[in-house]
Structure formats: C-alpha cells, structure tokens
Specification:
Layout: H1 2-20, E1 22-25, E2 29-35, E3 38-43, E4 47-50, E5 56-62, E6 66-69, E7 73-75, E8 83-93, H2 96-103, H3 107-127, H4 134-138, H5 143-157, E9 162-173, H6 176-248, H7 250-265, H8 297-301, H9 303-312
Antiparallel strand pairs: 1-4, 2-3, 2-5, 6-8, 7-8, 8-9
Helix pairs in contact: 2-3, 3-5, 6-7
Length: 313
C-alpha cells in the first residue's frame, strides 16, 4: 500500500518530464532550441525532436513565404514630378539563427518593421535615380526597376536572416495637388496635336484644290486648243469647197453669194435701204426692168420676193 502511494506520483512526474521533453516540428516551421537565451540547436526537418525539460525552450518560426505591404511614400524622379508609391514584398526566413540574433524576442513584427525601412529606402533610391522619369515609372515597362529594388533589398535583408523573393509596385499615382496641373498639360498637348492635324488637313485640302484647279485649266486649255484646231481645219475645208465650187461654175457661185448677201441684209422685216438700182448689189434684179429704169419703191423696200423670184427663174 505504501509502495503504490509513492510510485504513482513518481510515474506521473516522469510522464510529465518525458512529455515536456518532446516537441513536434511542423513541415511549415523551423524551430530553435534555446537554453538560457542561447541557441543550442536548430530543427528544420519536420518530425519529433527532444529538449531538456525546464531548462530548454523551443521557439518556432514560419518557414513559408510571407507578405509585407509597405507604407505609402512620395518619390521624386529625375523629371521632378512627385509620385505617391506603395509596394508589397514577398519574403521568407532563410536563416533562423541569424534572424533570432538580429531581431531577438521581437520576432516577425520587429523584422517586418526593419524590412519595411529597407524597402522604402531602396524604392526612393531606385526611382529617384538619374534617367528614371515618371513616364518610365508609370508605364508597363517598369519591371526592371522593381527587379533592382528587389536585388538591392535582398542584399541588405540577408543581415536579418531574410530572403526577399519578390517586390512589386502596387500603385504609382500623382499627388492630388498635381493632378489638375497634369490634366491641364495633357489637355494642352491633345489640343496642340489636334491643331497640328487640322493644319495638316487644311494643307492637304489646299494641295488637292490647287491640283484640281490646275487640272481644270489644263483640260479647258487643251479643249480650246483642240476646238481651235478643228475649227481651223473645218474653215480650211470649207474654203477649199468654196474655191472648188467657184472654179467649177463662177457664175453660179456669184449668184449664190449674192443670195446670201440679200438674206443677211434683208433679215429684219422693217429694214429700209436707199441704193441706186444700177449698183452691182441689184445685178440679179435686172430682169425686173431695164437698166436706168427706176425701180418702184415697193421693190426697193421689199427686195426679198424679187430675190426669190430671180432664184426661181
């Protein structure tokens, strides 16, 4: 009875000591075995591990890739246009021993505060470097800038036992007080481009109109020239026909020409002519009377029927 009374507490104490000396390392964690603030061992492989109970303690850290959002800061690129920038980083604890020595008991909170300061400093340094303008930062071709920020931050973060996996810029905006000025400049640029396009369009239209006017003048000149040539050729052909007709029968040709003269001179109905009947103009009216015989006034005023009668005769 006495043995069982003493044995049971001993077994319980031994069981508690045995259980307190065993701990489990998850595959997502790394563990440090600490003894009086000193690092005794590192447990990076998942599974069961042992420590000295009551003397040693276990500190576990996350072994996964973690995320950190930086504070919004203002940067000034080389073209002196201020930008509001915030970024985020992906990091992991690569060396738990160095991490513990760098941050102590502060853990991830202290490490992230220091890493955020490193990232902000590198963002200002890279985005404010020479030949880095706001247009480059605001464009889609800024991957090279973020790679430079990542590489330079990684070098400094190694002293904290951290590995910076990636850095990205979440947003890059203009300060609110600069937006209106920027929009005004953009409007002015668009208006200038529109004015240039209008001027080029007017110039092109003027060239087209000038070409059309020249084409019209050239076409009219060529048409007039061709018309003059055709009229000249027709007149020459007409004169040739007249000359041939005159040579064939001069008397008939003279008679025909006289008829044309009568027609033109007596075209109007109220025409009056005062002429001597012995003139050559009335040569073909001599059949109406002898030469020297006065022609009646009616014949003088209306010579067209006499001409018609002579032509009929």
């Amino acid at each position: 009875m006495r043995k069982s009374t003493y044995l049971l507490p001993v077994v319980v104490v031994l069981a508690v000591i045995a259980l307190s000396s065993i701990f489990v390392v998850d595959e997502r964690e790394k563990a440090l075995v600490m003894q009086f603030g000193q690092i005794k061992s590192v447990k990076e492989e998942p599974g069961l591990a042992f420590k000295i109970p009551l003397i040693q303690e276990v500190v576990k850290y996350d072994d996964r890739i973690l995320s950190l959002d930086t504070e919004t800061i203002e940067v000034t690129p080389s073209d002196d246009r201020r930008l509001v920038v915030d970024a985020f980083a992906r990091y992991r604890i690569s060396d738990v021993v160095r991490f513990r020595q760098a941050v102590g008991v502060g853990g991830l909170r202290t490490a992230e505060d220091r890493l955020s300061g490193i990232l902000n400093a590198q963002i200002r340094e890279v985005l404010g470097a020479d030949q880095v303008t706001s247009d480059v930062i605001l464009s889609t071709d800024r991957r090279g800038l973020t790679n430079r920020i990542r590489d330079q931050s990684r070098q400094q973060a190694l002293s904290l036992g951290l590995d910076v996996v990636d850095v990205r810029l979440k947003q890059t905006n203009l300060p609110s007080q600069n937006l209106e000025a920027t929009f005004a400049r953009m409007r002015a640029e668009r208006e200038r481009e529109a004015a240039d396009e209008i001027a080029r369009g007017n110039e092109a239209a003027q060239r087209v109109r000038a070409l059309a006017d020249r084409t019209v003048v050239e076409t009219q000149s060529e048409a007039n020239r061709d018309g003059d040539i055709i009229r000249g050729e027709a007149d020459a052909e007409r004169n040739g026909i007249f000359a041939e007709a005159y040579g064939a029968d001069p008397e008939f040709f003279a008679f025909y020409r006289s008829l044309q003269a009568y027609e033109k001179s007596l075209a109007t109905g109220n025409s009056s002519m005062v002429m001597t009947p012995q003139g050559e103009f009335f040569e073909y009216f001599k059949s109406q009377g002898e030469i020297g015989t006065p022609v009646p006034p009616a014949a003088t005023q209306s010579a067209e029927p006499a001409a018609t009668g002579t032509a009929t005769e």
